């Protein structure tokens, strides 16, 4: 599943990549000058951009804890994984449930190059990495079934993914295809960018990404909520990620004051 390709030879460093820019926002080292340049341009327009990236990571950690501890789910399908940044999803899940099984999915060669860090899980559980495009959900489901039992509940994690996929490119269809394959009791964990809270800053950020060749889509609360159609959101519903179950955090909040332009939520399949 992880492949043996020499990913480094296939990494395009001539243009920025969202995963590497995100890594730069988080203070990581797995990015290139072109990514740093775009990150600096975005931060000049929106000084809160790195804080938003940290907030998104913080949401993932809290959502994983809720899914494992309160819902008892032991299987995760994480699509749009990004460059490994500790603590990773499997570390959080397996710290509570050592038998948890996680499949990571991404199509960025640099993520493949660092996939080994995603595979250091517990001997009781399983962690695997699948090189695939999010726009090919049937391929993902077929290959992930080697590790995950889709007759049992699975947490489908789409963290900061869909704002890179416009509706015209099938964002809703790929989510519905994935959710339809899940057993009752499964859940969707999702965060997505919005311009509802800070419209001017977000629009400037979108323009900066576009200048770097990356398309971003900001969705309204109603549009993000529609992605959860047919599912039952857990309290407090679809809210800014900073407001979603902050009591589940371990350690001090990295956020400070001010809005976070990401909606997040966890919703269960009846």
UniProtKB/TrEMBL annotation:
BP-aspect Gene Ontology terms: methylation
Superkingdom of the organism of origin: Bacteria
Record-level Gene Ontology MF annotations: methyltransferase activity
Record carries keyword Transferase: yes
Signal peptide: none
InterPro entries: SAM-dependent_MTases_sf, SAM_dep_MeTrfase_SAV2177_type
Pfam family, one: Methyltransf_19
Keyword Transferase listed: yes
Gene3D superfamilies assigned to the protein according to its UniProt record, in alphabetical order: Vaccinia Virus protein VP39
Alphabetical UniProt keywords: Methyltransferase, Transferase
Protein name per Swiss-Prot or TrEMBL: SAM-dependent methyltransferase
Species of origin: Streptomyces sp. R08
């Amino acid at each position: 599943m992880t492949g043996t390709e020499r990913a480094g030879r296939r990494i395009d460093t001539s243009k920025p990549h969202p995963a590497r820019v995100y890594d730069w926002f988080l203070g990581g080292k797995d990015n290139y000058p072109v990514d740093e340049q775009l990150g600096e341009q975005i931060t000049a327009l929106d000084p809160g951009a790195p804080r938003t990236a940290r907030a998104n990571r913080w949401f993932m950690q809290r959502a994983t804890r809720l899914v494992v501890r309160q819902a008892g789910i032991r299987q995760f399908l994480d699509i749009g994984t990004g460059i490994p940044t500790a603590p990773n999803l499997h570390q959080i899940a397996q710290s509570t449930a050592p038998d948890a099984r996680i499949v990571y999915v991404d199509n960025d060669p640099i993520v493949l190059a660092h996939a080994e860090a995603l595979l250091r899980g517990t001997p009781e559980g399983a962690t695997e990495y699948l090189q695939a495009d999010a726009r090919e959900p049937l391929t993902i489901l077929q290959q992930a079934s080697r590790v995950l039992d889709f007759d049992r509940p699975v947490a489908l994690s789409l963290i900061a993914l869909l704002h890179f996929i416009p509706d015209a490119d099938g964002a809703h269809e790929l989510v519905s295809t994935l959710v339809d394959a899940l057993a009752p009791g499964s859940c969707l964990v999702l965060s997505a960018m919005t311009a509802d809270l800070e419209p001017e800053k977000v629009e400037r950020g979108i323009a900066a990404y576009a200048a770097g060749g990356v398309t971003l889509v900001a969705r309204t609360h109603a549009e993000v909520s529609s992605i959860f159609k047919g599912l039952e959101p857990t309290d407090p519903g679809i809210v800014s990620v900073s407001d979603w179950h902050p009591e589940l955090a371990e350690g001090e909040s990295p956020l400070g004051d001010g809005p976070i332009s990401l909606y997040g939520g966890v919703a269960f399949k009846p």
